[in-house]
Amino acid sequence: MSYKNILIDREGSLATLTINRPNKLNALNKATISELHQAFDDLDKDHDVAVIILIGSGDKAFVAGADISEFADFSVKEGKQLAQDGQDLLFNFIENLSKPVIAAVNGFALGGGLELAMACHFRVASDNAKMGLPEVSLGVIPGYGGTQRLPQLVGKGRAMELIMTAGMISSERALEYGLVNHVVAQEELLPLCKKIAGRISNNSPVAISYAIKAINAGFKNDKNGYAQEIKAFGNCFGTADFKEGTTAFLEKRKADFPGA
């Protein structure tokens, strides 16, 4: 499938998905959200893909925010629908994807851009990255999960301050807060993400999928994370990956996971 606003590069079991709107600092509009959903859905169903890296084009921005011109005149009803559709189609969709998604934050990640990075399973940032949720400066609040995911990642107090001041933080401060896992020079960003992805892809894709589901359950009020872990742990025993992993361990060789 051809896309207007995104690029997909395949390298073995790794897929790199690039948001390609450099003239708009990769701002999210409806078309881009729709294309990202389709791309993630296709990659999630592709048995040959183990890990996905998400990055913005150019060296200035991961995603500088949402395309405000699309919703500046929306009504209350339209605003609610915008948030609902965005969360269902992309942000919650990425969070619950069965394959790990690494956000390579290469520059500004503001508003919907930071919300997109937070929906990924973890984040690696370049040393020039700036992050923030400035929505209250526009008279609105984060609507793509920012009020929920930011406190989970950095704590309630820090999230309250960041959201209410509409401020930006540096990549180093984001690392201190636990918002990102690593900070490197921009030229080292993709190589490090690919190195981490390579380590992930050595492991059972079925077990990783179950781990994502169990970890996410612990952050949802309507789910018991411990119960989800027990269920997922038990389910692993019925997989070909478990049989291969344990057999390889006992035979003192490297496992060759079938992904089933």
Mean pLDDT: 94
> What's the helix count?
10
pLDDT < 50 stretches:
none
Tell me how many strands there are. Answer: 10
Order of helices and strands: EEHEEHEEHEEHHEHEHHHH
CATH architecture of the largest domain: Alpha-Beta Complex
Largest beta sheet: strand ordering: 1-2-3-5-7-10
Query: Would you tell me which CATH topology of the largest domain applies?
Result: 2-enoyl-CoA Hydratase, Chain A, domain 1
Helix content: 40-55%
Largest sheet: 6 strands, mixed
Distance between the termini: 26 Å
CATH-level-4 superfamily name of the largest domain:
2-enoyl-CoA Hydratase, Chain A, domain 1
Structural class based on helices, strands and sheet pairing: alpha/beta
What is the CATH class designation of the largest domain? Alpha Beta
Fraction of residues in β-strands? 15-25%
Radius of gyration: 19 Å
When the domains are counted, the total is: 2
Tell me, briefly, the overall form.
Answer: globular
